[in-house]
Design goal:
Blueprint (H helix, E strand, L loop, with lengths): L1 H23 L16 E5 L2 E8 L13 E9 L5 E8 L2 E7 L9 E3 L4 E4 L5 E7 L8 E8 L3 E9 L22
């Protein structure tokens, strides 16, 4: 049941975000007086919209030098021709690879027209390899994305702030009640 609800929620969010991207272009959802800016870095390069670009939250403290940090983002191509994400670079890592869910290098990602491409956990995503410095939740770093047709765009990307919960129940974000309270 929980798995089905999660899938339904995910489909609903996907439809909402896709509709907003198509209807509102680079501005986001909403009217001029009440614009919505989703978390993470958002940008446009040519006809390609970039949304929710962020470094995954550090699991048990900050990302340390030598660590590999996952980098997630969504892409939506409003153009007439398919584009491809060729790669990325940053000064805070030895390299940035496009990898499959299992971490193996896969190479460029097609970005077809009018289709949302989610590069995220459990799917193809980017991986900042061999970090050169510590990155804590809340830190920002510059990452440059390279597309075959649209060109390059530099983003100031946020490392998600961890949400650590001690003695948690199985419900996300809830802590167990204190004894006798």
């Amino acid at each position: 049941m929980r798995k089905r609800l999660t899938a339904q929620w995910r489909r609903g969010v996907l439809l909402l975000v896709t509709g907003c991207l198509v209807a509102a272009g680079a501005a986001g959802c909403g009217d001029a007086g009440n614009e919505h800016n989703p978390p993470g870095a958002n940008a446009r390069v040519g006809p390609v919209l970039i949304r929710y670009a962020h470094i995954a939250e550090p699991p048990d403290g900050p990302w340390e030098p030598g660590d590999d940090a996952p980098f997630y983002l969504w892409l939506f191509n409003q153009g007439e021709d398919t584009d491809r994400l060729l790669g990325a670079e940053t000064t805070v890592a030895r390299s940035v690879d496009i990898v499959r869910a299992d971490g193996t290098v896969r190479g460029p990602v097609d970005v077809p027209t009018r289709k949302l491409i989610e590069l995220e956990k459990g799917r193809t995503h980017l991986l900042l390899r061999n970090l050169s410095r510590q990155i804590r939740g809340g830190d920002y770093v510059w990452v440059t994305l390279r597309f075959e047709r649209a060109g390059e765009v530099a983003l100031q990307v946020h490392s998600q702030v961890p949400t650590y919960v001690e003695d948690a129940t199985d419900a996300p974000g809830l802590t167990s009640p204190s004894p006798g309270g």
